[in-house]
Specification:
The complex is a heterodimer of chains A (about 575) and B (about 100). Chain A is mostly helical and about 575 residues long. Chain A has four domains: about 250 residues, no CATH class; about 240 residues, no CATH class; about 45 residues; about 30 residues. In chain A, about 75% of the residues lie in helices and about 0% in strands. Chain A contains 25 helices and two strands. Chain A has a two-stranded antiparallel ribbon. In chain A, a hairpin with a 6-residue loop joins β1 and β2. In chain A, α15 packs parallel to α18. Chain B has about 100 residues and is mainly α. Chain B has a single domain, classed as Helix Hairpins (Orthogonal Bundle), CATH 1.10.287.3510. Chain B is built from three helices and no strands. In chain B, α1 runs antiparallel to α2 and α2 runs antiparallel to α3. Chain B starts with a helix and ends in a 13-residue tail after the last helix. In chain B, about 15% of the residues are buried. The chains are: A mainly alpha (about 575), B mainly alpha (about 100). At the A-B interface, α25 of A face α1 of B.
Chain lengths: ~575, ~100
């Protein structure tokens, strides 16, 4: 077996092995559990980093799994290895952070086992080149996220949030499964590279069904409109898990799916427009909801939804490089934001920002790193979020309609506004409550500082990153250097416009007192936003309808054997009748 | 002379029909098991017949053997349940078991 094949297999196996070991250690030995989880997570990260220089465009590791499942093949190409590295490295930092955050919790075995299982499944998802296996890994990540969101399983809100995440992502999973089965029916295998090379040979309707099925799957997984409601609810999870779901795993899967299959679906009528519209609507809606939310983690969750909207928008506009580069930036600064928010929440024991304020003086480390992450989120030069967001906007300007571009500009301004709002509500101003605060612990700082440094520097990788993604990023960016990308972004007129909008967003926060008339005029929008724009009501309606129809169907289950046999006979007769009719007509 | 496949076809239809009819009309748990047995034996003959027609005799044989094993287990478990039902409810009438009904 080649080195890269071995490493690819190891990058899935190491976290999974760690999950088993942590679970078997038993909850009586918390120190050993912390140590084991951290060492396996870091080993996985090391394996993933070792894969970077060995990425290859050909499949490795070809194991037959029997006729129904095709072959287990892994494809560690640029795109796959990149996402695997994001999952393992950021995931391992979240595990390190957990050492402080989860200290003293019971059931550490369950916690760490699911976290490591989650990371391994995500790596399998992005490295697999067999569509059916991709689906299997996809569902494993959904199950792990459910188990982790509901980690505090004596809290009904946490359990409800976990079930919601599971159900919503299952809806998407159906789209993916339908696509996989269609692919098998028409291609005779689940092989993704074959499909990407020969997608034109499939009937256009089949390709369209697959394309939109995958869009539904990606939207559900990446919390895009109209499936965005599960992600903010998932905030009931322990904060490192939120960082894991938002930055390292899970939500990246949807963006990955769209980017991976973009070459095949590009030609499907209206598909790129649909992708672009979903991204635009999501980015705007979520940004507005982030402005009115008062729960620190919910603000961050809405900002994730909004930034994922930017990535999806970029894919719709054909800017694969921009979307993946924004994914990298976002993974780093959002992990930073969530973990520093975790440090704050751990210190003050509340998530309500109305009770915070003035915490900065007492938590200097947490404040410094969170401000760095926040400025990156707002798109302030020269942090990584600025460059990648400008690239996204540039790609949208070049490849998408003007209205979407204008909306995304507005979204950038709103992002700056809500970022400044939550930073000042948490760290600055007068303390609004009497909260005991202490700064981040040692393990927390060990996880936070590398992420802060990454937020300051990952944009320097733009050029090599474009070359690394290679064909997946489109030929345009393959030969660019960081220097040329930087000059190109810095001199583009769109950048000045975007910066002006961001500055406007910042100014809106500073001058909020004098804008109170505007705020009152928009009060209705604010109220609608804090109610999630009514999507909750729609969800509840769907649940009620499902339960009602299940109750109605219950009457057919009378438990009398004779009736059941009669129903079977009736069904048999119906099938025979259909077949007989078909034979008569010669169909 | 009557061809073998015709005999087998008639046997299949007869056994499956009798079995289904038994399941349809009886309320006695032991008779349910008997009906099920007759039905499955019909299905067995159908499997063997199908193997003969398609020429895949070995596949049909292995499937038939599997069915025999599974069917035996089903009967054993069902009869054991019948004993328990008799002890719990004092009757073997399946209507006593319809606890799913509200």
């Amino acid at each position: 077996m080649s080195t890269i094949g071995f490493l690819a297999l190891l990058s899935i196996a190491v976290p999974w092995l760690g999950a088993a070991v942590v679970r078997l250690l038993g909850d009586g030995r918390p120190r050993a559990q912390h140590g084991t989880a951290v060492s396996f997570a870091l080993a996985g990260a090391a394996v993933a980093v070792a894969m970077i220089p060995r990425a290859t465009g050909v499949g490795v590791l070809d194991v037959p799994l029997g006729s129904a499942f095709g072959r287990l093949t892994l494809l560690p190409d640029g795109l796959g290895v990149f996402l695997a590295v994001v999952a393992e490295v950021i995931g391992s930092l979240a595990v390190v952070f957990s050492v402080d955050y989860m200290r003293g919790e019971r059931q550490l075995g369950r916690y760490y086992a699911y976290v490591l299982f989650f990371i391994g499944a995500m790596v399998g998802l992005v490295l697999s080149s067999n569509l059916l296996l991709l689906f299997v890994f996809w569902e494993i990540t959904a199950l792990c996220s459910y188990a982790l969101i509901s980690f505090y399983n004596d809290d009904p809100k946490a359990v409800a949030a976990g079930i919601k995440a599971l159900i919503v992502t299952q809806v998407g999973g159906i789209g993916l499964l339908a696509g996989a089965l269609l692919l098998y029916a028409y291609q005779g295998s689940y092989d993704i590279p074959t499909f990407l090379a020969t997608a034109g040979g499939l009937p256009p309707t089949v390709l369209a069904v697959m394309a939109f099925g995958f869009l539904v799957a990606a939207a559900a997984k990446s919390a895009q409109f109209p499936f965005q409601t599960w992600l903010p609810d998932a905030m009931e999870a322990p904060t490192p898990v939120s960082a894991l779901i938002h930055a390292a795993t899970m939500v990246n899967a949807g963006v990955y799916l769209l980017a991976r299959f973009y070459p095949a679906f590009e030609g499907v009528p209206y598909w790129t427009l649909a992708v672009l519209s979903v991204g635009t609507v999501t980015a705007l809606l979520a940004a507005v909801m982030a402005i009115v939310s008062t729960d620190l983690k919910r603000v961050l969750a809405y900002s994730t939804v909004s930034q994922l909207g930017y990535m999806v928008y970029a894919i719709g506009a054909g800017g694969l490089f921009a979307s993946q580069f924004h994914l990298l930036s976002h993974a780093v600064f959002k992990a930073l934001l969530f973990l520093s928010a975790g440090a704050v929440i751990h210190a003050v024991h509340t998530r309500d920002m109305r009770e915070m304020g003035g915490l900065g003086a007492r938590m200097p480390v947490a404040r410094t790193v969170m401000v760095i992450g926040g400025l990156a989120l707002a798109g302030i030069p020269i942090l990584n979020g600025f460059w990648s967001k400008e690239l996204v906007l540039e790609a949208g300007h070049a490849g998408g309609p003007a209205w979407a571009w204008a909306f995304m500009l507005v979204g950038a301004g709103l992002t700056a506004l809500y970022t400044l709002r939550f930073l000042s509500m948490v760290f600055y101003g007068e303390p609004r409550g009497r909260l005991a605060a202490h700064d981040a612990g040692v393990a927390m700082q060990v996880a936070l500082v590398p992420l802060a440094l990454g937020t300051l520097t990952t944009w320097l990788l733009a050029g090599p990153f474009g070359a690394y993604l290679g064909p997946a990023a489109g030929a345009a960016h393959a030969a660019e250097t960081t220097r040329r990308i930087v000059v190109q972004v810095a001199t583009a007129p769109a950048t000045a416009l975007a910066l002006a909008v961001v500055a406007l967003g910042l100014a809106a926060w500073w001058r909020r007192a004098s804008l109170s008339g505007v705020a009152r005029a928009l009060g209705g929008v604010g109220r609608a936003a804090s109610n999630g724009f009514g999507f909750e009501a729609i969800n509840r309606g769907i649940v009620r309808a499902t339960v009602a129809s299940a109750e109605a169907l219950r009457t057919t289950q009378n438990g009398v054997l004779n009736w059941n046999v009669a129903a079977i006979l009736a069904g048999l007769a119906a099938v025979l009748a259909v077949l007989a009719l078909g034979v008569v007509r010669g169909v | 002379m009557i061809p073998l496949s015709l005999v087998a076809s008639v046997a299949v239809l007869g056994l499956v029909g009798i079995g289904l009819f038994g399941l349809l009309v009886t309320r006695h748990l032991i008779k349910v098991v008997v009906g099920l047995q007759v039905l499955v034996k019909g299905a067995l003959v159908a499997l063997v017949l199908a193997g003969r027609i398609t020429g895949q005799v070995q596949v049909a044989q292995s499937m038939a053997l599997t069915v025999i094993v599974a069917d035996t287990i089903v009967s054993v478990v069902a009869l054991a349940l019948a004993v328990q039902v008799r002890r719990q409810f004092g009757t073997l009438d399946v209507r006593a078991l319809s606890a799913l009904r509200r």
